[in-house]
Design a protein that fits this description.
Elements lengths: L12 H4 L1 E5 L5 H12 L2 E4 H8 L1 H10 L9 H6 L3 H24 L7 E4 L5 H4 L9 E6 L1 H10 L13 H26 L2 E5 L5 H11 L1 H4 L1
Parallel strand pairs: 1-3, 1-4, 2-3, 4-5
Length: 220
Amino acid sequence: MIIDGEIGDPFGTVKQALWICGGQWAGKSTVSRLLAHRHGITVYHYDFHDARGHQDRRIAHRVRDGLPTTDPDPETVWVDTTPERMAADTIAGFPVRFEWALDDLRALVSGRPILAEGWGLRPDLVAPLLDSPRRMIVMVPTDGFREHQLRALPRAAAVAHRVSDPERAQRNRIERDRLVAEDAVRTAKELGIRVLWVDGSEDAEAVADVVAEHFGPYLA
């Protein structure tokens, strides 16, 4: 991957980016929105682009690999598998999806840093792009806060597909998310990237204060 060359990062956006990775339901999007309003930065929401804006690239990738162009059967994905297999498949798919996100970021021009947030922006993928570990933070919910979010957020309450055993699918999903977050924590620690555990004892504004302090040199 060429980063400093003309093709790799033509507007220097990736080089100046700030990154929030971590587990599902840690409040990454909420904190990013607060920082955008406070500091006038632009936020790139990975999850939104990954779910909606990259479908054409996803189909092209499947065609190139000789795979079916339709999404896998929800029953196979959510019910007839194990959380460990789900987590492994999710983590294995992140590098390709990360390249699509980088393409989006390279096309942005801003006089301020771009803050990219999302669970697919993994520490091992982002670290080679960083000139300092302070450009990244990993937000992870504690088990207790994850359970709170699952109860409080309608979009987190169930798997958004019709399956034969919704309760099992939800259990698989929750455990998959925990394993994927655990992997992000382990990798971040190996790379010297800060991990911020979110336990719900402080509101979003207070958590945003912590993240803003971490990114302080680039927000000033």
